TrEMBL record:
Keyword rRNA-binding in annotation: no
Sequence similarity: Belongs to the binding-protein-dependent transport system permease family. MalFG subfamily.
UniProt main location, coarse: membrane
Keywords, in A-Z order: Cell membrane, Membrane, Sugar transport, Transmembrane, Transmembrane helix, Transport
Species annotation: Natrialba swarupiae
Membrane-traversing stretches: 26-47, 96-122, 134-156, 168-187, 273-291
Protein's name in the database: ABC transporter permease subunit
Domain ABC transmembrane type-1: 97-291
Alphabetized CDD domains for the sequence: TM_PBP2
Any single GO CC term annotated in Swiss-Prot or TrEMBL for this entry: plasma membrane
Keyword Transmembrane on entry: yes
Highest taxon of the lineage: Archaea
Membrane topology: Multi-pass membrane protein
One GO biological process term: transmembrane transport
Length: 306
């Protein structure tokens, strides 16, 4: 910090930077910090509310609950009495966490098994119908949201007629199908930036096509695969509307259980809701931080030297 200040003073003294430049930097920094505070405030509030006493999110004296009343009762309730881990807290009866993990596992597994080879084929291979497939992927990524209500109605009718309306595996496959077009296009775009000369050099050295994919393409694609992993994980973890429509209470995922707390017929237990929401968001944060280094490494990919 002291070194940065010393360099800044020296730059101003020598004329390399002006007072106006420093003012713009200062205003930009203050604005960025203010935006960060605004964006993080709801997270801070919901976490502190989960430690508060009773069912209120606010004290009579202000926006925040009294820190003197902080406790872990809400987390104990979520882990040992609610349907978060076990059904009604009864050990041996899988709860919403187990259901969500099944859906996410199927979503991620099916998605990556299609996205990775599909992205490689679209990036590196020339074949009949390639352009039409690419345009179709773009079409699915752009018009899907606009048809969401009609799709949901048709999906519900189809799944009910086929007897698949309460199946976690089928729900995971459906999420995967929705995640594949956009993420294949995303990973394909990333693979396009991998120089073909890397593959050619490996082939000259005697590598087979499979070895080229395994030893060259996949390692260099780790940042892109990490991003795709995050997106496909979120597709199976966060989705609520379709899960609520197709599943029955015994197969509810965490997102539906969280909504059920807020939609309580009598009174919403806000502290328990805040604790449930905090634990529900925790795996997302873990996945992001676990893959952060790969994502950041993708920013400098264009600067690699052969």
């Amino acid at each position: 910090m002291l070194e940065t200040i010393t360099q800044t003073v020296e730059q101003v003294r020598t004329g390399r930077r002006t007072i106006g430049d420093l003012g713009k930097t200062g205003i930009g920094t203050v604005g960025a910090v203010a935006m960060l505070v605004v964006l993080m405030f709801p997270v801070y509030w919901i976490v502190t509310a989960s430690f508060s006493q009773g069912a209120g999110l606010m004290s009579s004296d202000g926006l925040f609950a009294d820190p003197a009343t902080y406790n872990l009762d809400a987390y104990r309730w979520v882990l040992f009495e609610s349907d978060f881990v076990f059904d009604n807290g009864e050990v041996g009866e899988p709860g919403a966490l187990f259901n969500s993990l099944i859906v996410v596992f199927v979503t991620v597994s099916v998605s990556l098994s299609v996205i990775i080879p599909g992205a490689y084929a679209l990036s590196r291979r020339k074949f009949a119908g390639r352009e039409k497939i690419l345009y179709g992927y773009v079409l699915f990524t752009q018009v899907g949201a606009g048809l969401s209500i009609a799709t949901l109605i048709a999906l519900y009718a189809l799944f009910v007629n086929l007897g698949l309306s309460n199946n976690l595996l089928v729900l995971g496959v459906f999420y995967a199908a929705g995640a594949i077009p956009f993420n294949t296009w995303l990973l394909k775009t990333f693979m396009d930036n991998i120089p073909v000369s890397y593959e050619e050099a490996a082939i000259v050295d005697g590598a087979s096509q499979w070895q080229v994919i395994r030893e060259v393409i996949l390692p260099l694609s780790k940042p892109g695969i990490a991003v795709v992993l995050i997106f496909t994980f979120l597709a199976g973890w966060n989705e609520f509307i379709i899960a609520q429509t197709l599943l029955r209470p015994e197969n509810y995922t965490l997102s539906v259980e969280l909504y059920s707390l807020a939609a309580n017929e009598y009174e919403t237990p806000w502290t328990e809701f805040a604790a449930f929401a905090s634990l529900f968001a925790l795996p997302v944060a873990i996945i992001y931080f676990a893959t952060q280094s790969y994502v950041e490494s993708g920013l400098s990919f264009g600067g690699m030297e052969g």
